[in-house]
Structure formats: C-alpha cells, structure tokens
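By way of example, we now present a protein record of this kind:
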Amino acid sequence: MDDHSMMKYQERSIGGGAITPKNTEYDVLIVGAGISGCTIAERMSAAGKTVLLIDKREHIGGNCYDHFNEHGILVQKYGPHIFHTKNKRVWDYLNRFTRFNDYRHKVVARYKDELYPIPINRTTFNKFYGLNLDEEGMKTHLERIREKIPDIKNSRDVVVSKLGVELYDAFVKDYTKKQWDCYPEDLSPEVLQRLPIRYDDNDQYFNDPHQGIPVEGYTKMFERMIDSPNITVLLDTDYRDVLAELEYGMLICTAPIDAYFDYKFDRLPYRALEFHFETHDREYFQENSVVNYPGLDVPYTRITEFKYFLDQEILGKTTILKEVATWEGEPSYPVPKPETKKIVAKYQELAAAEKGVHFLGRLGRYKYLDMDAACAEALELADELLGDVSATSGVPYKGMKR
C-alpha cells in the first residue's frame, strides 16, 4: 500500500473513540475485521454500499494478522496460517490484493527424538515400524493392524480403524488431549475424519493446487481489501458499546454467536491458545517450519519457525513460536463435542429468525473453517445480498507490487 493510502487507512482507524454524529448511518455494519469481515466489506463497498467495519482488537486481520518484527522477520501473531485452496474463485479473488509465494507446507512430529512426516505417509510408517514396504505392502500391513469397527462413534474410532492402536498412541492420542483437553473418544468423529493416510512418500501437508503465503503478509492484503472511501474502520471497540449510536441497513456478525445472543443458552466452548515467542541468536532453531510435539512430556503442541515461510535470509537471528492450548483467552477453535451440537442448533434457530442479521466465519457460525472456506462463504453471502455480483469483478489494487 502506498503512503497516501496508508495515511487514509490510519485516519479511518479510530481505535476506542466515539463515533461522531456525521458518521452514524451505514448501509452495512460488519463486526469483525478478519478474513470473513474484510472479504464481505470489500464486496459490499465495491457495490457502492457504505460500510462500518468494527473490531475489538487494535488491528485488522483477525487471527491472520502478521507483522515484521524488529529483526525483519514476518511473524504471524496468532500462529501459522498457510493459505491453501482448491477453490479457483477464492484464489483469483485474493490474488487481486496480494501476490502469494510458492511455499509448500510440510509438518514433522518429534516422537522419541525422531522426526516423522505428518500426515502419516509411507516414510512415517516404514520408519516407525523399521520396515521397507512399498505401497501395497503398507496397505496390507495396515489391514492387519487396524481395528475393524463397524459403527464409528467418535474420533478414536476413526483413527484406530485406519491406523491401528500403535500409530494412534504415538501421534494422535496425547496430541489431541493437549489440543482439545480431552481424548479422541470424547470428540465427534468429524474432528479427525479428515486425517489422511498416504501410501506414497508425499510429505506435503496439503494437496490443494493453490498454496502459498502473501509475500508482503496477510495484513497488507487485508489493508488493500478495505482501502475504500466507502469503508470506515473502527478498531479497539466492542460493537455492543456503540450499537445504540448507529443506524444501519444490515448487520453481518463474525463475532461469537453465543455472545451476540447474550449467552441465552449458555456459553459455547472454545479452545484458545497461549503464544510464547522467542528470538534466538542463530540461523535456524529447528529442521522444519513446523514441528509437532505429540507427547505429554512438553506442554506445547507445536513450534513454528517463521523464517521458513518466506525463505528469509536474515543472518544470526530466528524467531519461533511455541503454542499451548488453553481454555482462557481469545476463542480460536469451536469444540465439536456431541453435547455442544444441541446448543449450537438453538443459537442457529435464533439467528435464522433475526431480521437483517447474517452470521459468518468460524465464530459466527461456530464451525471450524479454513481461510479459503471463510473467504468463500463471505463471497457467497455477498452474491446473495447483491444479486450474484461476480467476486472477481474489478481490477487489482493499483498500489500492489507485482
């Protein structure tokens, strides 16, 4: 973003301040300036609608927010976010506002001081069992060790029916306990249903055709998305504190749905994360961008080393992030337990009856969504509200470096 555009953006970001009387009427009020909120804000403003975008944090971007630290390393404040999608519409849309690099994400797990590719592939399998099987040999071996469970009732059933007990115990059981504060047998099957098995040596974490990280960061991408005279941004503000001062045609809420309805049916459970950043005086801290720690011997679930993401050549310094899952702090992950579904259904029934209000995003819908899915749902809602306006209409942002 050029200096002039950045100045306009800063002037419109009135963190914590009251809204002046001349700015109390908007076509659209959007709560939450993450990927869902910024996408729908851009679409509505491009159609000529006036938009007020509110976020309780002091920055835009939600959990995708990133920044360059004092050492010049691009740091993702809320943990690693690697963009990946099969959705060409979403990919084309976001490429209007940024340029992605060709980073391909790989994850390894440290188990008994050895590194294993995750998701489990033939390399993982052979190393774990001390074998040298080809694809057919691996499938045959798995068929012998997996548990035959005709009625899958929980996430443990899902995994042991695919991998057997030993791999489950090594890589899944305790990692899930740290992540969710419960073991897989207490989680709905869909939590680990997507866990893939690879019978070849493919060690990429995602298989999607479109992958990468914005070369200037996600925050810069979001700044370009909302750089419009039709969009006013209000940061460091709880939307409930200013609703009485506003007039608006519709409300789009990406904040927690239970909070919107004042917890009428009790609070929905969310897992949060503690983030522990460290900068070390060395070239690299670990062998890979992300190393998972599946055991209970350490409190953190994974360590991220950010220099890998943009392949930054910064001598003598590296910044890492250790993540610890907790119940305190900003809600990050909806907890998909069977007993939660009944409460969610009650809130969704209220939401459906709320006139002029739409709920989006991971918190607004109480649904785990990857970035591309969140963007896609925002584009689809814009189509519905605007009469199927093409999400790729318009031209790339003029200030973007190509």
Remarks:
- The radius of gyration is 22 Å.
- The longest helix spans residues 165-180.
- The chain is about 30% helix and 20% strand.
- The longest strand covers residues 270-280.
